[in-house]
Amino acid sequence: MxxxxxxxxxxxxxxxxxxxxxxxxxxxxxxxxxxxxxxAHIGNARPVIVFDVLFRLLRHLYGADHVTYVRNITDVxxxxxxxxxxxxPDLPLNEAIRKVTETTVAQFRADARAxxxxxxxxxxRATDNIxxxxxxxxxxxxxxxAYVANGEVLFDVRSMPDYGQLSGRNLDDNLAGARIAVEAxxxxxxxxxxxxxxxxxxxxxxxxxxxxxxxxxxxxxxxSERYLWDEIKDRLSPAAHRHPHAFDIHGGxxxxxxxxxxxxxxxxxxxxxxxAMANVWMHNGFLQVEGQKMSKSLGNFVTxxxxxxxxxxxxxxWPGDVLRLAMxxxxxxxxxxxxxxxxxxAETKLRDWQRAAQGASLADGDGPDASVVxxxxxxxxxxxxxxxxxxxxxxxxxDGGAAAKHCLxxxxxxxxxxxxxxxxxxxxxxxxxxLAAAIAARLAALNAKDFAKADAIRAELAExxxxxxxxxxxTGARQTKWEIKR
Length: 486
Ligand SMILES: Nc1ncnc2c1ncn2[C@@H]1O[C@H](COP(=O)(O)OP(=O)(O)OP(=O)(O)O)[C@@H](O)[C@H]1O
Ligand SMILES: [Zn+2]
Fold this sequence. Notes:
The protein is of the alpha/beta class and 486 residues long. The chain has helices spanning 42-62, 78-87, 93-114, 130-142, 171-177, 216-230, 238-241, 257-272, 304-309, 320-328, 340-357, 370-376, 382-397, 402-414, 420-427, 435-447, 451-463; strands at residues 7-10, 15-18, 27-31, 67-71, 146-149, 152-155, 192-197, 212-214, 247-253, 278-284, 287-289, 292-293, 336-337, 466-472, 478-484.
């Protein structure tokens, strides 16, 4: 199989570039995850979905075991403290914070699953990486890129001659625009906090700079370093060791370019004296409401669970796969204006495809259609890939379209559109959990002539009262129906 060339738009160079991984056996991706003080809104869902498609594509191109995807959870933040104090005023602060973050993380995971997203390889929490942050800060102080003032540790932006490359801002612009009085303890108004002191009633960790807590930007520098370099460097190629600490792709929403990603780059590069933190920087556009970014601070948001579980938006509940498609119909770098009409269009399209794919039975290894992969490999051109899907669906609907049906089913599964619901609706019954996976595993075993394994799966299901019936479709491909004795 020839691997299609992957091209990605790189915010750092402002150009679409051919993607060349540092070590193709270990493709490494970091995406900034949620700050867990409130339920995620559907704007927050956009990067989760977009980078899930990237993850799936990379796994397809380089092999599922050759991609490491890290998406962090920011569980230390002043907004979390404020929420904890507001919602649980009677609890000790640490307990209140744990309540806020645990419910929010659980909801976030459930939301991501409902949207058809794979779990990232690692989902680290900031609070489990405080020692790593402190080590990075100590290095920056030792290298004279950071200083202590007024109980804070600050990054000295003037110590980095090419600060501002990602956002295209230079320090003089920043200065000219800084009408607010310079905070007296800062050498430069653009200097940012790495560590700040905590009052007794704020969460804090002991450190060489007093009891305190990390700034937001240092969290991502420390976590990407740990999970994309430190913990896996022994298995990285010699080529990767020629670019120590650097990884392939860093992603997030447009609003993170400045200051968050700019400052992550400053910290990571200056700590290690390297020329790159990540080679490719990808940013998704905003989900908007009447031309404005959906955001918590503007109050114009709909949470994912509101959309999926209540009838507040457009008078009925919307399934996660419909929101997923509604989001992907527009190229990831373009803005989206969100509306009920968009959800309706996505639902019609998706159900047409799923209907056309009905009856296909997939084995584990069945992969997506090549024309769809080719469009995705061109800077995640999902909107063009969906035109290719449309063509396959038309073929599948014609007489004798069994091969197209099979291809469509495999491609939908690859894109994260739950095939379980296709199989279940085919039989018009409520399918027990895991049955689709068991049937697929057994078909894969049959196709591989591993009859012992196939029989074992059949026997296991029989014990649960499930009988399997094998047949062949028009193309001669095996398919399996099932029956439950209640
Ligand atoms: N309206 C939006 N459209 C697309 N992406 C968004 C939108 N709002 C936030 N994001 C992205 O969601 C991710 C999670 O960000 P975070 O948890 O910091 O949300 P947030 O920025 O606090 O949200 P808000 O702006 O509503 O306060 C980031 O990658 C951010 O860029
Ligand atoms: Zn980050």
